[in-house]
Amino acid sequence: MTTPSTFHLDVPAEDDFGYVQAIKSGDLVHVSGQLAFGEAGELLHAGDFTAQLKQTHANMDKVLAHYGATRNQVIAQTLYLVNLHRHSAATMKGNLAYFGDHRPAATALGVTELTFPGQLIEISFVIDTKLPA
Predict the structure, then answer these.
(1) Of 31, 35, 64, 97, which is least packed with CB atoms within 10 Å of its CB?
(2) Cα 28 from chain centroid?
């Protein structure tokens, strides 16, 4: 029997909610929603969308690095945005800067709130480790 490869940030929410940041199944890595977590699991930049997006991307890079993957191997992402219309332009700009010429499948959802007060964005994604880096 194969043991799944998981990734943890060791933040309190993982135990509180009973989840892992990512789990690898075959060639695919399914990544839980990443957000602007700090090292201790605290939300950084409450209410500052651009700073949260930048930190969320930095946390996505930690997951990619753990699996030896690159942004070019992200095949799908789901973005959860508080006040979608207000933050859509910053989201598009940030997404293009993060992925460059790579284009994963994506869905953006407007939501009324996320887990932490002041949290404005969360991004879950899927990595295909067989794709060229």
Answers:
(1) 97
(2) 15
Residue-by-residue DSSP string for 93-132: HHHHHHHTT---EEEEEEES--SSTT--EEEEEEEETTS-
78 phi, psi to nearest 5 deg: -125, 125
Which letter, b or e, does each residue of 72-81 get, where b requires 16 or more Cβ atoms within 10 Å of its Cβ? bbbebbebbb
The most distant pair of C-alpha atoms in the chain lies apart, rounded to whole Å, by 48
Distance CA 41, CA 97 (A): 25
What's the pLDDT tens digit per position in 74-106? 999 999 999 999 999 999 999 999 999 999 999
pTM of the model: 0.94
